[in-house]
Amino acid sequence: MPAKSQVYIVNEDAASKDAIIADDTPKTPWKSIYFIGVLALCTAIQFSLYFSSMWPYLQLLDHTVTEEFYGYVVAVYSAGLIIAAPLIGLWSNRVKNIRTPVRFCICLQLSGNLLYFFAQLLPFGRKFAVMFARFFVGAACCHSGLLKAYAATASVAADRSRAMAIFTGGVAFGLTVGPGLQLIFVPLGFPGFKLFDILQINMYTTPPLAAMFLNSTALFIMTFLFEETYAGLATSTSHAVKDKEGDKEEKEQRRAAKEFKIPPFDKLALVLCHLGRFTQTFTFTALETIGTAYAMTIFAWTKKEAVTYVAISYSFMSVVEFLAYALFVFAKLDRWLRLRFHCLCGFAALIVLHLITFSWPFLPGELTTYTNKDMDRHLNQSAPEPVGCNLDRLSWCTYTKPVNVWVYNISFVLIVGVSYCVINITLETLFSKVLGPRRQAAHQGFLEMTEGAARFSGPVLISSLYTAFGPRAAWVAEIVVLSTAVSLWLIFYKRLVPLKMPTSSDDKESTDGSLDDEEEHLMAEKDPDVASVLGYVGLHRAGSVSLGKRVFDRASVRSSMRSNLRKSMRDVPIKE
């Protein structure tokens, strides 16, 4: 159960404080939040394991595979996410827990990784086996929305940013470790060695083995270690104990509790949050999809060099991102975080990245090129592996300018690392606060669906543009998407605020459940006994106070005091 804080007895005449009688204010269950971070870590590692190895693995399974087909392989991952995310979210809301749906998703993830590994044994249709494997894994990864929903609703409002930073920090650390593990597997090379004289173990087939181990670890944590408790949900019942004088007052309290309803959220603000998530995911997925193919073409790297250097680049990027998350969690930078402003700064930084790495016509140098004949000689083992841009497949090889390898990779590492940390923390926190203290699994599921839509459309669009027109067209498309999102956020900037919660029927609304401190100050100034009650209740925002034998929650105490004080304090301008 969440930790609890103190509740005080006050005499019927409110003249003195007698004793501490209970301890029932929910606090954030940090142990469970940290386990959520570990589960996010496991998911992110097994996701980032495939960043650099999937494209050359597909080429080895089927020599006819194209960049466009690879785009579809990446896209079906998101198709699975789009289909499964809302269904899993609704399932979680229906059963009122995340444990069962998350365990189901982990098992599905395990099945997808098994299929990816055993695709090498199939006599035909290997590339389609990989596609189906990614579909299953994508559908299973929708459980990250449930993990986010838990981090948002298990934490109290004051701890929300830190709780979300722990979740997203787990993701960032996973993205750091994943490419690093891929580097460990690189020395195995290809074809590697055989297991049981059937299974080929090499730099391309070890990632699914590592992913299956992580799936098993996550399943163990969710089954035996994780405790599902909530501190950030608004409830329809009071913290008050039963009234020993009779049922009349108890019924009055229940009736008052039922009158409390969470107000509807701002749908436009929620749509803008979805747009932000779509834009962020679209941009990153586009870079991820063409990353290895882009590096092999623009920087003239071999397959092995591309796997190695792209993995190193992602590792450094993830280290930067993880360090930024660590600062938020341990240095508590969320105290200075302005959600809307800093989220916009993150998007602006991504626009700057694309301008820096754009293949401008005035850049010096030409691309290294080769033809299909060069590739045929290599496949016949009569020539080394050709590198650069294939003139027979890509029409833009002759006029596209190469971007400096150091400019591209350093910009990618620093800008993506920092901006994605900032966007994740601010956007996740803002999204949960726009919804308010209600169950969010279904809404997080729809947010995952939006992310899946970006992961589906991004690879298909960007890989098609890249194949037909080159990196310039792909970069322009990403800049347009980013600029559109930034413009709409600026236009509706004032709508992107947390949900305003009424503290009681007589109270004015307060943002995300915060209280009207000026009114309390005026009331306390007039009566020292009121100051005593409000002082103790103010220390424990969700607590209850017992006036003699009657017990009220904090909102009831404030409402009752206002009614009495307004009759006797005509000279004090109480704010409505």
Automatic annotation (TrEMBL):
Q: Name one GO molecular function term.
A: transmembrane transporter activity
Its domain of life?
Answer: Eukaryota
Q: Which Pfam families match?
A: MFS_1 (PF07690)
What is its subcellular localisation?
Endomembrane system
User: Transmembrane helix: is it a keyword of this entry?
Assistant: yes
One Gene Ontology cellular component term attached to this UniProt record is: lysosomal membrane
Q: Which residues form the signal peptide?
A: none
Q: How does it sit in the membrane?
A: Multi-pass membrane protein
**Keywords in UniProt for this one?**
Membrane, Transmembrane, Transmembrane helix, Transport
Which residue spans traverse the membrane? 33-57, 69-90, 102-122, 128-151, 163-188, 208-226, 307-331, 343-363, 406-431, 475-493
Q: Which InterPro entries match?
A: MFS, MFS_Domain-Containing_Protein, MFS_trans_sf
Which named protein is this?
(pine wood nematode) hypothetical protein
